[in-house]
Amino acid sequence: MDTIEELQRQVSALTDRAEINDLLDRYLRSLDDGVFDEEWARAFHTEDVTAEMPIGTVHGRDAMLAHVRRAMALFDRTVHLGTNAVITIDGDQATARGAQLSTHVLADGSDGSDGADGADGVFVSAGHVDTRLVRTADGWRISASALRVVWTQGSPPRLPHDLTPTPAGPEGSGPELRPVD
């Protein structure tokens, strides 16, 4: 194989990986920034995105935007950390699996705990996120994601009656996010 062609392939692969990592990092940072509008939704998600989150599964960018707005309104402040993303790229499709640690200060401080553990009003969750991405004319976008919470600390916020968790299913439930071959 021509050395120039091989270098171009390697640079392209590294660029794709860097762009995907940047998208995932910017997404988590955006959750903490708290600006959820149409521009936010287009910057991260495809129009037909499917997202499985602890408080529900949504289909479509508009539904994703509405769901994230309502869910994040439960918190006064948050810090979302993502790490260890393993990315597999196949042409214009990719998958990523990474770890996520999310710290939430509840908006109303009412976590239902007695405060004996010193974590009154703070809820922490940790788990893994499986993400499917596609290359669009505007760059890489998330087409499906599934957050699987592995552990929590503190009591979660009290959810409004119209924002309730979906029943927990087996580990493989939700959007099919197997790595691309």
Brief descriptors of the model:
181 residues; alpha+beta; six-stranded mixed β-sheet; 40% strand; elongated; disordered C terminus
How would you describe this structure to a colleague?
The chain is α+β, with helices and mostly antiparallel strands and 181 residues long. It is built from three helices and six strands. It has helices spanning 3-33, 38-44, 61-72; strands spanning 45-53, 56-59, 75-90, 93-106, 122-136, 139-153. Strands 2-1-6-5-4-3 form a six-stranded mixed beta sheet. β3 (75-90) and β4 form a beta hairpin. α2 packs across α3. The longest helix is centred in the N-terminal third of the chain and has 31 residues, at 3-33. Mean pLDDT is 87; it is low at 167-181.
Task: Spell out the blueprint of helices and strands.
Elements: H1 3-33, H2 38-44, E1 45-53, E2 56-59, H3 61-72, E3 75-90, E4 93-106, E5 122-136, E6 139-153
Parallel strand pairs: 1-6
Antiparallel strand pairs: 1-2, 3-4, 4-5, 5-6
Helix pairs in contact: 2-3
Number of strands: 6
The helix count comes to 3
The helix-and-strand class reads: alpha+beta
| Helix amount | 25-40%
Unreliable residue stretches: 167-181
Radius of gyration: 18 Å
Average pLDDT confidence is 87
Task: Briefly say what this structure is.
The protein has 181 residues and is an alpha+beta fold.
